[in-house]
Specification:
The protein has helices at residues 11-17, 21-33, 47-66, 83-92, 97-100, 121-131, 148-165, 167-172, 184-192, 212-220, 225-238, 248-261, 277-291, 313-318, 368-385, 400-420, 431-442, 448-457; strands spanning 3-8, 72-76, 111-115, 136-141, 174-178, 195-198, 266-271, 299-304, 323-330, 390-395. By secondary structure, it is α/β, with parallel strands linked by helices. It has 2 domains: 3-37 and 232-420, Rossmann fold; 41-229, Glucose-6-phosphate isomerase like protein, domain 1 (Rossmann fold), CATH 3.40.50. The strands form 2 sheets. Strands 1-10-9-7-8 form a 5-stranded mixed sheet, sandwiched between helices. Strands 3-2-4-5-6 form a 5-stranded parallel sheet, with helices on both faces. Strand 9, helix 15 (368-385) and strand 10 form a beta-alpha-beta unit.
Length: 458
């Protein structure tokens, strides 16, 4: 179970947060009932029991049925359509897996690559060069099929696949995750004969990691999607019944609300393991799109410690005091791919040096993980002393199960936190502004007048 440590959070803010507990528990109840603001998009809540476990069986059956004819999974999507999947992959995969998986003793685990999350021409050219040397399967993820970034990338990749394999074989290698009934990608998939999975109507993209959006590519890549769902299910089950005012979900949401009321405008999610970087990117989208509207919400920022202590650490310590900080920590940070039986078997310790010419003798024999943990604790204390209220979210080992629990925790806390601000957690009206300008500048039919107005301003 996730544990929230508030030892280094402001006592004044902790006291203030209690005044929000009743509103927070009421907001959670409204999310459960689906009658909060944006309630038509609360299908993610308690997803594993209601749909997830059954869907996982369907996904696993399909993956087993097609066999492992591929060595690369191409995930085409942007925002919530790919970040959840990538967060799991990056957190649980060996950092140098691509280099290690070569030669006669290479692992048969597919490599996962991504497209459609930006508009880099160079990036697509490099991806095509890479795919020409591999045997890919493609999962294109888009509810509408018309989001510019993944739509452009998929057209390029589809053309590559059809030229290389022919249309029939290309269709066998493409899976579309999209709307159940409508949209450009649904029509294209039907015409081309792609296998399809559904993006639920009642789940927004940034809340969709436990749906087919995340489960399909993760299963194709060999990840344990049952454990991911089990972890999330444990979190949702912990929110049953009464007496939830001190539950970590409610506590996190109310502490954030109290901090915002006190003038805090930035929340840093700090992490000590680089493999968690994409988990934090997922969190940034979740809170940024859910809370950042109507002049509300803290700006979600991620910092990698100790790396960023040598750049932005100075600002956090002595800069503008409009910050709070949450540390993300795990009891065991070695993923299963690096563990062999007892985790201590893979502990890397500071070796003996005969002359102690680097003055590290006092660290001799100590695990690197202990040094990292000491750095995190020292940083938390220093920043707290410098006026940055600091929380710590603590989980057990880094695994699919704990990541599932973390996803469910943040999704629920985010919904409650946004409702405490008086905003709809499930819409993103501000995202449309750049899209309209993009369409106008590119000459999309229907945007001619806006295009002319924009060009006169440039």
């Amino acid at each position: 179970m996730i544990r929230l440590d508030t030892s280094f959070f402001s006592l004044e803010l902790k006291t203030s947060a209690t005044s929000w507990q009743a509103d927070a528990t009421a907001a959670l109840a409204a999310v459960k009932r689906g009658d909060c603001a944006g309630g038509e998009f609360t299908g993610w809540y308690d997803w594993p029991r209601r749909h997830g476990f059954a869907l996982a069986e369907e996904v696993k059956q399909h993956v087993a049925g097609i066999g492992r004819f591929y060595d690369t999974v191409v995930v085409v999507g942007i925002g919530g359509s790919y970040l959840g999947c990538r967060a799991v992959v990056d957190a649980l995969t060996h950092s140098h897996a691509a280099s290690l998986n070569r030669g006669p003793n290479a692992s048969k685990t597919p490599q996962v690559v991504y497209a459609g999350h930006n508009l880099s021409e160079a990036g697509l050219i490099e991806l095509l060069d890479f795919l020409a040397t591999r045997e890919p399967i493609v999962n294109v993820i888009s509810k509408s099929g018309t989001t510019t970034e993944p739509a452009v990338a998929f057209r390029v990749i589809r053309d590559h696949m059809e030229q290389r394999y022919g249309k029939a074989e290309a269709a066998r290698r493409i899976i579309a995750t999209t709307d159940a009934h409508k949209g450009a990608l649904r029509r294209l998939a039907g015409d081309a004969g792609y296998k399809t999975f559904v993006v639920p109507d009642d789940v927004g993209g940034r809340f969709s990691v436990l749906t087919a959006v995340g489960l399909v590519p993760l299963a194709l890549a060999g990840f344990d999607i049952d454990s991911l769902l089990n972890g999330a299910d444990q979190l949702f089950r912990s929110l049953e019944g009464e007496g939830l005012a001190t539950h970590p979900v409610i506590e996190y949401a109310t502490l954030r609300r109290a901090a915002f009321a006190a003038g805090k405008r930035v929340e840093i999610l700090a992490y000590g393991e680089p493999r968690l970087a994409t988990v934090v990117e997922w969190w940034k989208q979740l809170f940024g799109e859910s809370e950042g509207k109507a002049g509300q919400g803290m700006f979600p920022a991620g910092l990698s410690y100790t790396t960023d202590l040598h750049s932005l650490g100075q600002y956090v310590q002595d800069g503008c005091r409009n910050l709070i900080q949450t540390f993300l920590s795990f009891s065991e940070t070695l993923p299963a791919s690096l563990r062999s039986g007892d985790a201590s078997e893979r502990r890397l310790r500071v070796p003996h040096a005969a002359h102690n010419d680097d003055d590290l003798g006092y660290l001799e024999g100590r695990p690197i993980s202990d040094i990292n943990q000491a750095a995190m604790i020292g940083t938390k204390v220093a920043h707290s002393d410098g006026g940055v209220p600091s929380l710590e979210l603590h989980l057990r080992e880094l695994s699919a199960s704990s990541l599932g629990e973390l996803f469910a925790f943040f999704e629920t806390a985010c919904a409650v936190s946004a409702l405490l601000l008086g905003v709809n957690p499930f819409d993103q009206p501000g995202v449309e502004a750049y899209k309209k300008n993009l369409f106008a500048l590119l000459g999309k039919p229907g945007f001619e007048e806006l295009g002319g107005a924009l060009r006169r301003r440039l």
